[in-house]
Amino acid sequence: MTTIIAAIAKNNALGKDNNLIWHLPADLIRFRKITTGHHIIMGRNTYESIGKPLPNRTTVIITRNKNYVADGCIIVNSLEEALEITKDDESPFIIGGAQIYRQAILLVNKLDITEVHHKFNADVFFPTIDTEIWKETNRECFTSDEKNNYSYSFVSYIRR
After folding, report:
1. In the predicted model, is pLDDT for residue 19 greater than 90?
2. CATH number belonging to the domain at 3-159, selected among 3.40.190.10, 3.30.70.20, 3.40.50.2300, 3.40.430.10
3. pTM beyond cutoff 0.85
């Protein structure tokens, strides 16, 4: 089952200037735990903001640039091609960015969302999660602490 995994703010903000806006170590730890051992699918901008393949994962980069090269990564030219390449992985993850999320939310059956309980000034946003289409199946809430500057929730959805 292909899953979108994302951290989004109250106003659906994802990032600004090709960077994350906040730093939540708990979210990064959870992301690593959930995605390790699986394919992670992302757009070129997201890959370039990370700067390298993430350890113990197979990185699939979607780009329209037919000549794009990134050592240690699989390069494809469409989301459909990425999904085909990852079909033998029981749980590939789509990790961004906004353009890829807009396409993928129409195709996947699961969302794994970190809701950051704060509004941010951003230039890229996650699509609205329509509760007529998506059913919340789990929610874990956390308050800010010395390591995590914002309150947040881990929320899972499945397609109705």
Report:
1. no
2. 3.40.430.10
3. yes
